[in-house]
Design brief:
Helix content is about 35%, strand content about 20%. It is of the alpha+beta class. It folds into two domains: about 5-65, Arc Repressor Mutant, subunit A (Orthogonal Bundle); about 75-195, Aminopeptidase (3-Layer(aba) Sandwich), CATH 3.40.630. The chain has a five-stranded mixed beta sheet with strand order 3-4-5-6-7, with helices on one face. A two-stranded antiparallel sheet has the order 1-2. The model has no long low-confidence stretch (mean pLDDT about 95).
């Protein structure tokens, strides 16, 4: 495979992962050079593998796979790693979700806005909350230090989905429990959701 073909393959892979994206979004997914990316994008458009599309409020042209099928609704929930491809390109995340996300690990404690190690919580078609977590392995627990809901907040189903996502994360990390250590009103609702969670491998 020559270099140009490899670059086309990388752009197609990026388009499949991102769904809809600008040229810069596609290029940044695999850190391609701008000149190479634009040339390969033009080739893929001419071949019909990619198609141009319009996203409301995006000033730049957007692109997607010609074979893309958009579901009527999305029903899924997940805690996102800071390095998840949905959020690693912060400017794109803000464009898609109106969600400003920054790691505050290296921010002095008194200057942090949301917490030391905050994970976005994706629920259905929006990023609905952010959660400050710490895995305390010596105590075999996943501690929730803060829950910050994004407007308009989490409904009962959303809070239940967050509880189950936290319990799944604790189980994945080999931790015995999820502990709440936050004063916000959200914590009381989350405590109830943890107690009634269908995912019972990890106690609250």
């Amino acid at each position: 495979m020559d270099e140009a073909a490899a670059q086309r393959g990388l752009l197609l892979h990026a388009a499949g992962a991102l769904g809809v994206a600008t040229e810069k979004d596609l290029r940044d997914y695999f850190r391609l050079a701008p000149g190479d990316s634009r040339a390969r994008l033009a080739e893929l458009l001419e071949e019909g593998a990619l198609q141009a599309c319009t996203v409301q409020a995006w000033p730049q042209p957007a692109y997607c796979l010609a074979s893309l099928r958009v579901p009527r609704t999305v029903s899924s929930s997940a805690l996102l790693s800071p390095f998840d491809s949905l959020v690693w390109e912060r400017e794109r995340t803000e464009r898609l979700f109106d969600f400003r996300y920054r790691l505050e690990i290296y921010t002095p404690a008194h200057k942090r806005v949301y917490g030391y190690y905050v994970l976005p919580f994706l629920h259905n078609e929006r990023i609905a909350a952010r959660v400050d977590l710490r895995a305390e392995r010596a105590h075999e627990r996943l501690t929730v230090h803060a829950v910050h809901e994004e407007q308009p907040g989490l409904d009962e189903a959303g809070m239940q989905a967050l509880a189950e996502s936290l319990q799944r994360m604790a189980a994945w990390l080999g931790l015995a429990e999820v502990q709440l250590n936050c004063p916000r009103a959200s914590a009381a609702r989350l405590r109830v959701a943890l107690a009634s969670s269908r995912f019972s491998d990890v106690p609250a």
